[in-house]
What does this fold into?
Amino acid sequence: MIAKHIAHTAVLTGHSVLFRTPADLLGDLEGEYAGLRCRKFRFCARPTLLRMDEIGYIAYDAHAADLLFEIVNHRYERNSILVTTNKRGSSIRKYE
It folds into this structure.
C-alpha cells in the first residue's frame, strides 16, 4: 500500500511512473532481437519511477537475472526504482 501511494503521489506531482511486475518486464525482453531489446531497455529507463512489484515471487534463471540487472543498470543514478515483495527470503538477515 505504501508503494502504491508513493507512485500515486509521484504521478500527481508530475512525474512519470511505470508499474510492471518483473515477470511482465522479462516477458517483454526475452526472445527479442538486440535492437528491439535495446529500445525496450530505454523505455524502462525513461520514467522517473519504475515500480516493480513482487520481485521475489517467481524464481528466475541466470538469463532472466541478467535482464533484470540490465534494467537496473539502465536506470542507475538516473531515475528511481521502487521494488516490493511479500516473500520473506532466506537471504534477508536482521542486523543489530
User: Anything to note?
Assistant: The first helix runs from residue 2 to 12. DSSP finds four helices and three strands in the chain. Residues 20-84 form one domain. The helical segments are 2-12, 22-29, 34-45, 62-75.
